Amino acid sequence: MIAVVHLQGGRLTWHRIMIVSLSAFLGRMLLPALKGALALCLLLATTARAQFVYDAIAFGSNSDGQVVVAPADTSVRSVAAGRFHTVILYDDGTVKCFGRNVEGQSAVPPGLSGVVAVAAGGTHTLALRSDGSVVAWGANNFGQSTVPAGATGVVAIAAGAGHSLALRADGTIAAWGFNFYGQLNTPTASGPFLKIAAGDFHSVALTFTGQPVAWGDNTWGQCTVPAGVGACSSIAAGGHHTVALRNFGLVAAWGRNDAGQCTLPAGLGACSYVAGGGLHTIVQQTNGVVLAFGDDSQGQSTISVGTPANGVAAGSRHSVVVRNRDCNGNLVIDTSELGAKDCNNDQRIDACQVANGFLADTNLDGVPDVCQNTPTLYCFGAAATCPCGSAGDGSGGCANNFSALGGRLVAEGLSSVSADALVLRTSRVGAFAPVLYFQGTTVVNGGAGTIFGDGLRCAGGAVWRLGVRISSGGLSSFPPPGGAVSVSGLVPATGGMRTYQAWYRDQTPGFCTPSTFNLTNGVSVRWNP
Predict the structure, then answer these.
(1) Residue 459: closest CA among 375, 519, 374, 505
(2) pLDDT score at 337
(3) Which of 44, 101, 399, 479 is most deeply packed, by most CB within 10 A?
(4) How many CB atoms lie within 10 A of CB 447?
(5) Residue 194 in this model has a pLDDT that exceeds 50
């Protein structure tokens, strides 16, 4: 959430607004870039989705019609909520805004298409297109809707009360708009960053290792990260509070708490999405159940969805939830039911896709064939992509000073959530190098990766830090004895596609600018239930 400042009659007038972090939706942002059979599968599934769709429902203040979701608003990919307006992103890359439009925040530019993410600020709106460009409209009294020339190659966006943020593929942040509290002064020394969010007058980001960093207004302690929060997978910002989705689905919240927006409900389970509103917070548990807490003066925290959700957004005094429906348009009650499984994580129910002929199940075991592929290696270090010309041999990542072949990652064993025997193994990474294993939900840059440190970042989307293992003679593996990759990465019981990569230190400083770290190739794994 946020507050916007206007000059009226020679004096400053402050308006409270909500700001929504789009981090939770990054897991689907790069899906159109996937190659081969999966890309074809997604294309067909999108065509068929009119028969089994995601819709949205909104709660809370309706002063400007911001909670009136039309019945025709189906095939919803994600949602965002501003002070008095709501934004819907559809599967086909088009956008709809409704609610207050005094500053033009709901006037979608004609012909806007190819959108993969949206953000709603106080009185302005941002859209991220598939080519990495940002489009902004609405109030521009602080320059918040004037996208700077440097905001290119963007992978995530966030909108505050009067400021805007864009995360580039290289982990740097472009910021513009209102800066009275220093909310545009990104602490670059803490980067590179993986996620961003914007509150009223503060900004938040996650570092490559998942550590939250915040800057700007700290009146309520919203920028003071509590000790013990640890590594996180996602971040959100409310009006004057911050919410983090920690590893293993735990939630932490800090900052203003006068309405209980930072007081977690008793018995809260593991979560997959978080959102911060004006004086309230919304969390979606991994079973799809949505909970809200904090201010409920307009009914914004009285969530009655009645079905597993697939995304949440919080406005100043309203909330929006994306809902799941089955092949017949009925609300799906339990994600563990056969018909609700989504083993390939393409956000469509498997049973619907099989029944409509868009996913094959040749052995009739109830699991679509596409979900039974063996792990796929991708993103190999090539001369055309590796920094400093440090190309490997094409079977691993970019070259390092331990092996000119480049670090290599493979996945072995059974990738079944119910009987997880998957092992991630690295080689050629250094004699005694610390190796950080992490999991993503998307393939970066169509499988080619993006320059990151001395190597290429290949696993993206919703990123989980699985753990660190020390190599011996250049070899390392995860998980440790008795552990499970699916548990460490919180792979849902219904399965889905996940991507994996390993980070490690180059042993000799100065091997390749910026001489800090290198990465292996990527591995794509399809988990069965």
Answers:
(1) 519
(2) 36
(3) 399
(4) 18
(5) yes
